[in-house]
């Protein structure tokens, strides 16, 4: 199968991908990865929680929701200088993108102004800047774009069928609306989801279908493996089979061939072998550092050791991948063989 940029996948097509024999799925994903990226390079990002806890949302997976008793202490928005000091440390450790996350339903304009100052400082260091602040209105998205923000992260979390079982304080369309505001402001989108929340393979197919059928494929697609935190409703959920996780990574690579697919939350619980399979399946971005917002993440030394074993190097700058359009390659639109 050749790489084709499409935005019209059916649920059955995506499910047929996930149902492929594992070797066939991996070979297809690996081939498409090589068409668009250097398979031995991985983009390295660092994520900092700039405002922690106290969120009014009820996301069933999230320890930052104020309504759940997870032992997390809420903190106000960090000062600009403090954030930039963390960004400098991240750059020294090898990160090329610095992501800032805040536990808001949606930020106030005064908060956006402070984040914009952080973005300007990060960009001045020569790193890409990414932010995840909750829902944005069009003017807030424009403010962040003017400050130099490269990416805005706003995950769909899960597919539309399962969404109401996971989140009741915000509907699916609100997430799609924020992504539209971000695109219209000229920002790149970082958008993915979480797997292992008790969903079926068909529901994972629905998430991937929605992502692939967005008007523009996200520049970054984070695939998160649920980190179960005691006190959240999803604590105690049956663990996702590791091969199902790898299948999800591979399908994301095939469906969105020119996007960076990020191996995100849950890496602390993954063996080196599982992470290596994910890289073979087309994952080519990770978060670097000890924490991912409020949950653990493999430390820098462990990541560097794994990269050395696999012959992987960090991308010095996020490269522009080749884009293969559907009007050029029409050999296979079924994604089933």
How would you describe the overall organization of this protein?
- With 337 residues, the chain is an alpha/beta fold.
- It has eleven helices and twelve strands.
- Strands 1, 2, 3, 4, 5, 6, 7, 8, 9 and 12 form a ten-stranded parallel sheet that branches.
- Strand 7, helix 9 and strand 8 form a beta-alpha-beta unit.
- Helix 9 packs parallel to helix 10.
- The longest helix is centred in the middle third of the chain and has 16 residues.
- The relative contact order is 0.20.
The main sheet comes to: 10 strands, parallel
**Structural class of the secondary structure composition?**
alpha/beta
Helix content: 25-40%
Using DSSP, what is the number of strands? 12
- Please state the CA-atom Rg, rounded to the nearest Å: 19 Å
The succession of helices and strands, N to C, reads: HHEHEHEHEHHEEHEHEHEEEHE
Low-pLDDT parts are: 290-297, 318-337
| End-to-end gap | 7 Å
What is the count of helical runs? 11
The 3D shape can be described as: globular
Strand content: 5-15%
Brief description of this entry?
With 337 residues, the chain is α/β, with parallel strands linked by helices. The chain has 11 helices and 12 strands.
Write the layout of secondary structure elements.
Elements: H1 11-18, H2 22-36, E1 41-51, H3 80-92, E2 97-102, H4 109-124, E3 128-132, H5 138-147, E4 151-153, H6 163-166, H7 172-184, E5 188-190, E6 193-195, H8 201-212, E7 220-225, H9 242-255, E8 260-263, H10 272-280, E9 285-287, E10 291-292, E11 295-296, H11 300-310, E12 313-314
